[in-house]
Design brief:
Elements lengths: L2 E6 L7 H12 L3 E4 L8 E5 L2 E5 L12 E4 L7 H11 L5 E4 L7 H9 L1 H7 L6 H9 L16 E2 L1 H10 L4 E4 L23 H7 L9 E7 L3 E2 L11 H6 L14 E2 L4 H11 L3 E5 L1 H4 L14 H14 L3 E5 L7 E3 L2
Parallel strand pairs: 1-8, 1-9, 2-5, 2-8, 5-6, 6-7, 9-12, 12-13
Antiparallel strand pairs: 3-4, 10-11, 13-14
Length: 333
């Protein structure tokens, strides 16, 4: 039994949702608990012909036997939460920590009205920054004080640690990516808190000695939404010629596309304490790999890319995504 953290190694949109969904089905955790910022992060999970985009509920919801938690460190927008509970049908197994801070309408208005945040930084306009300001100022409303959330409120940290004491498997799910961490990212073009694995553990009240593995998800062709430095960015013409065109789950803005950044991957792996590397989009490196489920099906071009990635991050790549669907993955853990 184990406690595993899954986080993004680049600028977000690495395909964490798909990796979480796969690992959940494979490892069968009793709890999947979310850390990270709040509803400013979108995760897309494709199961068969169905595609789900979620912003509040853990991406691991597709594994039906796990209880789903939202950890103490996460900002909760009750409207988004209620919509998603209905949308994905998880009423009865989704719970939130009573100490979560609440995003109110005023926070969304402040976020969208602030020209610096909306134009210069490229904020998603979901109210997370202003809500975190209120949290720091100690004037935020907490989930335990919102009557409509009463059926969902628990002590998530206690529940997670109790599960670990019972030798159950727990999955801690991160959001965003290393490159937009408030501490480690390309400041000031960052989100409103840290996004590293240490923060995801803290968001859920799990001490560092209880973490067994940290899976860091890297995209073969990294992407970035919004403003900020992007050292390996290619032109739209170049990315379109490679057949790569993507749009953000929350903002629907076209993502900026770049080439593999070994230096950033190495630093990200170090800060996150990566023990297992995951690579998504290997089918963009060589389309002959699309849909592969066995390591032996990978082409020499794809294998050369993975060898380079392993050299850069300093740990084995054991999860390789070969397409958007949940089953299009190679798992050699």
């Amino acid at each position: 039994m184990s406690c595993t953290i899954i986080v993004g190694g680049f600028f977000g949109d690495e395909g964490k949702g798909k990796i979480v969904a796969h690992v959940a089905h494979k490892d069968k955790p009793s709890i999947i608990s979310r850390g990270g910022v709040g509803p400013n992060a979108g995760h897309t999970v494709k199961v068969g012909e169905k595609e789900y985009g979620v912003r509040m509920i853990p991406s691991g919801f597709v594994f039906p036997d796990a209880r789903l938690f939202i950890g103490t460190g996460v900002l909760v927008d009750p409207r988004v939460l209620k919509q998603e509970i209905e949308y994905v049908g998880v009423d009865g197994r989704i719970f939130i920590d009573g100490r979560c801070s609440i995003i109110e309408e005023k926070h969304i208005e402040q976020d969208r009205a602030n020209e610096y945040l909306s134009k210069t930084i490229g904020s998603t306009g979901t109210g997370c920054g202003p809500a975190n300001v209120d949290r720091v100022q100690r004037v935020a409303t907490q989930a335990k004080d919102v009557p409509e959330l009463a059926p969902y409120v628990i002590d998530a940290a206690q529940e997670v640690n109790d599960a670990l004491d019972r030798n159950e498997t727990v999955l801690l799910e991160g959001t965003q990516g290393f490159g937009i961490s408030l501490y480690w990212g390309t400041y000031p073009y960052v989100t409103s808190k840290d996004t590293s694995a240490s923060q995801i553990a803290a968001d859920n009240g799990v001490g560092p000695t209880r973490i067994d593995d940290v899976i860091v998800v890297f995209k073969a062709y990294p992407t970035r939404v919004g403003e900020g430095p992007f050292g390996t960015e290619m032109t739209k013409e170049e990315s379109h010629s490679l057949g790569i065109e993507e749009f953000g789950t929350v903002t629907h803005r076209e993502r900026r596309i770049g080439c593999w950044d070994g230096k950033m991957a190495r630093y990200s792996a170090m800060i996150n304490g990566c023990t297992i590397g995951a690579i998504t989009g290997i089918d963009n490196v060589d389309e002959a790999c699309y849909g592969a489920t066995e390591y032996s099906q990978l082409t020499e071009k794809a294998l050369a890319f993975i060898r380079q990635a392993e050299e850069d991050i300093g740990v084995p790549v054991k999860l390789i995504s070969t397409g958007p669907e949940m089953t299009q993955i190679i798992d050699i853990r």
